[in-house]
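Recall that a protein's primary structure is simply its ordered list of amino acids. Everything else, from secondary elements to tertiary packing, is in principle encoded there. The following example makes that idea concrete.
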Amino acid sequence: MPTASAAAAARSKRAPGAHTAASRRAERKPGGNAGAAPRVRWDRLGRAAMLCVSGALVYLYLSAGVHMFSTWRQAKHDSAVVATMRHEHTLLLRQHATLSKQATLEDEARRLGMMKKGEQPYLVGPLPND
């Protein structure tokens, strides 16, 4: 096992342009490379991307919820309209049955002043004054 002094001697014998990993790390301190391009902060970029994706998901869920709510309201309105139409249909069926009867037809004709064939009309009114 080499001693500490042997390691120091080996370092001093290296070529002047050779760099070790520790010296490269020391050179990369923030603000140390004023002319170099800024490094990408992947942690911040990742957070920003996650925020955008989360915002998109929230938008999609909210739009789907709003659509479901409006569909529910429309279905409720349509059900009320159908119930009203059923009630009106029932009334119209009763009215049709009533108007289809022969007796109703004759009563309406008499009210309009019509008579049956062979029937003699009689006028009932006030008696003349003598």
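The chain is about 65% helix and 0% strand. The helical segments are 4-13, 21-27, 42-100, 102-111.
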